[in-house]
Amino acid sequence: MWMICTKEWRQFFSSLSGYIAMVVFLLLCGLLLFVFPDTSLLDFGYASLNGFFDIAPWILLFLVPTVTMRSLADEYKGGTFELLKTMPLKPSQIVWGKFFGALLIITLTILPTIVYAFSLQALSAVGGLDIGSTIGSYIGLLMLGAVYTSVGICTSSFTNNTVVAFISGAFVCFLLFTGFEAISKLPVFAGGTGYYIEMLGIRFHYSSISKGVIDIRDVVYFLGVIFIFLLITQRNVAKR
């Protein structure tokens, strides 16, 4: 499994597109949080990274599928999947190796944003950041990235076209993040059913963790979604 993980890591950084994706993510976050006046954290009047944690899931919607779109689609298209089949590897080892390789890349991309927290803490005259909430938000963001990664690898396992894998991965991530919340607000679900429908979406659990309270139900939800998509991926790989 770790051989596949290392291969995924090296493949991503062997091309310029990998570095460009990471730089664009960090540059876009920096512009939105410190330059553009409508979203600048410096104009809030108090030290808070809430703006970053509100924006980051939407940027990750495009970053993560960029990382994962080649995971299996390129293997199918380039014929290297045939080589993987000749190795003493189970489908589960291939899938989890791909998952952890892509997740390490996403984690490495998110890690530099901790500078934002240190910057706001240093610039704050009184009080500073809510450390508990900030740590919880970062944990939620990493879990969100893990779910997006599992979705991206799953959609990549259905096709040998990287563009189709990217579009379908971004679309499914979008539906999981905000789709259930939108459906829950329909008048037909106004009686109370809407709350339970909203609980099926990622945004509900991400917002809960971002408050600084790590609820085991939210953790189980994220792990469950990851497992489901990786299980689907494993079955797709086994069929081939």
Automatic annotation (TrEMBL):
Q: Which residue windows are transmembrane per the record?
A: 12-35, 55-73, 94-119, 131-151, 163-180, 218-237
Gene Ontology terms, MF aspect:
ABC-type transporter activity
Q: Does the keyword Hydrolase apply?
A: no
Keyword check for Transferase: no
Q: Which UniProt keywords apply?
A: Cell membrane, Membrane, Transmembrane, Transmembrane helix
Membrane topology per record: Multi-pass membrane protein
* Major location category of this protein: membrane
Instruction: Kindly list the places in or outside the cell where this protein is found, as annotated in its UniProt entry.
Output: Cell membrane
One cellular-component annotation, GO: plasma membrane
InterPro entries linked: ABC-2_transporter_component
Q: Which PANTHER family match?
A: MEMBRANE COMPONENT OF ABC TRANSPORTER YHHJ-RELATED (PTHR30294), MULTIDRUG ABC TRANSPORTER PERMEASE YBHS-RELATED (PTHR30294:SF29)
What's the protein here called? ABC transporter permease subunit
Native source species = Panacibacter ginsenosidivorans
